[in-house]
Amino acid sequence: MNETTIVHYDVVDTIGVITIDNPPVNALGPGVREGIIDALEQGNADDGVQAFVLIGAGRNFIAGADIRQFGKTRPIGSVVSAAALDASSKPVVAAIHGYALGGGLEHALACHYRLAAPGAKVGLPEVTLGIVPGGGGTQRLTRLIGPEAALDMVVSGRHMGAAEALKLGLLDAIVDEPDLRGAAIRHARSIASARPLPRARDRQNWNEADTAPAVFEARRKALTRKSRHLKAPFKAVDCIEAAVRHSFDDGLAFEQQAFSELEQGAEAKGLRYAFFAEREAAKIPGVQASADLAPVASAAVIGAGTMGSGIAIAYADAGIPVKLLEISPDALERGKARVRDTYATRVKRGSLTQQAMDACLDRIGFVQRYEDIADCDAVVEAVFERMDVKHDVFSKLDAVMKPGALLLTNSSALDIDEIASATRRPQDVAGAHFFAPANVMKLCEVVRGNGTAPDTLLRTMKMGRAMGKVCAVAGSCDGFVANRSRAPMMSEMMIMLEEGATPQQIDRVMTDFGYPMGPFAVNDLSGLDVSYEGRKRRAEANPDYRKLHVPDRLVEMGRLGQKTGAGWYRYEPGDRTPHPDAAVLGVIGAVARELGTAQREFTDTEILHRVLLASVNEACKILEDGKAYRASDIDVMWLYGFGFPRHRGGLMFWADTVGAKDVHAQITEWAQRYGSRWTPSRLLGDIAASGSLLRDATGGTHQKATP
Ligand code: COA
After folding, report:
1. CB of 211 closer than 8 Å to CB of 153
2. What are the residue boundaries of the 3-hydroxyacyl-CoA dehydrogenase NAD binding domain, all occurrences included (predicted)?
3. pTM over the 0.85 mark
């Protein structure tokens, strides 16, 4: 594409209208910045033009720099085209609809006037990509809305609605009429001769107290608590401080420097990868999603336990009416109480108004009969994890649900085809595996059985997205993809305890790596009993199963985690702070003695590699078995299901930073030392030998057969 087709320039009644037309989101790809500059030059040289309008074609103004171009050399950056807008001798009116993000907002900020449609969203989300704005955004924004509001916006990277942006002075007006372009042209004519031109760079919207060093120090302190592993948010604070301390040009130079330092860094690379991995996960190879896939406008959940209630809340939060079904009146009452308590806690914390809670509760019906859910577009079963129980539920669903309803199971391990065999419509059956707490965790693993129709997968993913979830597809196998890939990490952690590592040390290594909490502390939160039954089941089924004696004993001692006041750590009543507990070290020591395992010291790197490489190997086996479409889908699952640090990209992206060859060599060595659980995956061997990247691997059978 060239600039003549991606930036249109027309003169309408003496107004030069510059239209960015670069689908899908009007990113500032090659030629766009140049096209803007050309149009400005043309209009400024034309006596028949009095002013300009800058607008986007399609659904957005400009969604920002083209993220695919980061890390590559660009002929010109946004700083140049923004300066051209700012320096235009004729006024420029930005007409914003849809998204004006990153470089998009920076261009709008460099215009002399900003109008927006009521639904427009603006933001500088660069920190979420590991960088800071590089087109003068931090400098113009701070001058326009003051440092405090600029800090809020830039450090969080959040999208802001038009009403809030108007209140802050970022926008001049909201245009409440369908023809934004026409309104902007009228506005441009009305201000065409007004001088001086209002330029954000000439503003200084603050008083002395707003710029005190303490304002910026407080931000840095808060960031040290929450985002100590990241560089970009700290740099963003520095840039905004530079805006209030220096001249515009010096501030701009400071911002440019910060931008270039970050752009090539590991954090930016990991975050860029995560951005695209997430979007890729929404696609099913070989299947084109049609735009008219029927949405899920009503849903039902079977089973009002913790999971079922959480899923019902997730629907209600997303504005989707839902019926929660329990046959036993007592269990239904408990479910009701659980749902109400969850909402009441949010109101108490101030994250929800009473009115919003009432609206959500109005969307949840509590029912006892299958007939009551028959007309729902989708149903998610969340009952006890046993095949006979699932069969009973699915045969009832088959009998009552309307044709075409999605029949979904929240099972975390059972075979989808076997579940589907209880129905006469296996094409409509899939897994919708939510992660606890289902109303909080963003991952929805969509599980494909052999009989599942592609449209069922696509509709389930569309439903998941409408619920605010990030979806990725898994094939049906024990533990599916997310839990199956994570299981070896969990086992290895436990086995390292027997060899002399401590829960505190492993937790510290993982939080230093970037996890918000260590895995043992998380296990205390979710409950040690959750995995206990599964281990027993696997040990019974497989005589070679490597038993994990330490967690088994803790469960048998009644140490189930925070809920019993003790698990991997000890807890004081009413306090969630984990305290190391000599009793746990006692259990570890006893198990080690019984097994005759010698205790030794571990380095942090050994711990990190032992836990993560165990999972990398399994992830390769999953791909080899054709149970995931792509390595990057596994990364998405780790990011959204397990809190893997986003700036590390994901499990497989991280493994590439170690290098496939070294990963393979290490796993081969551990296979010799520790036995068959470390047998290297064939796919890993192939990748190591070919020098390709682990993160680019695709699932074997999926390459050929579409589901
Ligand atoms: N650069 C390059 N590609 C981009 C892009 C950008 N800034 N923003 C979106 N895209 C691509 C996506 O990769 C996707 O491509 P695909 O269809 O090939 O997968 C397509 O545009 C649609 O994006 P998607 O996120 O699926 O659409 P959406 O309607 O759900 O969301 C946005 C739209 C703009 C909110 C979202 O895409 C977004 O947040 N983009 C990034 C904005 C940003 O951070 N800009 C600052 C860059 S410094």
Report:
1. no
2. 299-474
3. yes
Ligand 1 midpoint to CA 25 (Å): 6
Look up 326 and say whether it is catalytic: no
Reading the block at residue 383, the tokens are: 């009952």
Cα 3 to Cα 19, 22, 25, 33, 57, distances in angstroms: 11, 9, 16, 9, 14
Residue type present at position 173: A
Three-class secondary structure of residue 4 per DSSP: helix
Q: What is the DSSP annotation of 502-553?
A: -HHHHHHHHHHHT-SS-HHHHHHHH-THHHHHHHHHHHHH-TT----HHHHH
- Token readout for 606 is 């050994």
**Closest of 412, 383, 391 to residue 534, by C-alpha:** 412
State which residues of the chain have pLDDT below 70: 1-4, 701-707
Domain boundaries, the chain: 3-264, 299-480, 502-598
**What is d(CA 521, CA 506) in angstroms, rounded to the nearest whole number?**
10
The overall average pLDDT reported for the chain is 95
CATH class, 502-598 region: mainly alpha
DSSP string, 623-641: HHTT-BSBHHHHHHHHHHH
Q: 288: CA distance to ligand 1 center in Å?
A: 19
State pLDDT tens for residues 308-339: 999 999 999 999 999 999 999 999 999 999 99
Q: What is the spatial distance between Cα 137 and Cα 318, in angstroms, rounded to a whole number?
A: 33
Q: How far is the CA of 63 from the centre of ligand 1 (A)?
A: 7
Residues with CB under 6 A from ligand 1: 24-25, 27, 63-68, 99, 101-103, 125-126, 129, 276, 279
Of all helices (H) and strands (E), which one includes residue 231? none
Q: Which of 375, 423, 82, 337 is nearest to 409 (CA)?
A: 423
Mutate to test the pocket of ligand 1, among 6, 22, 25, 99 (most ligand atoms within 8 A of CB): 25
Among candidate residues 106, 326, 381, 445, the one labeled active-site is 106
What is the structure's pLDDT at 19? 98
Residue nearest to atom 12 of ligand 1 (CA): 279
Question: Active-site residue 106, yes or no?
Answer: yes
pLDDT per position as a tens digit, 240-253? 999 999 999 999 99
Assign a CATH topology to domain 3-264. 2-enoyl-CoA Hydratase; Chain A, domain 1 (3.90.226)
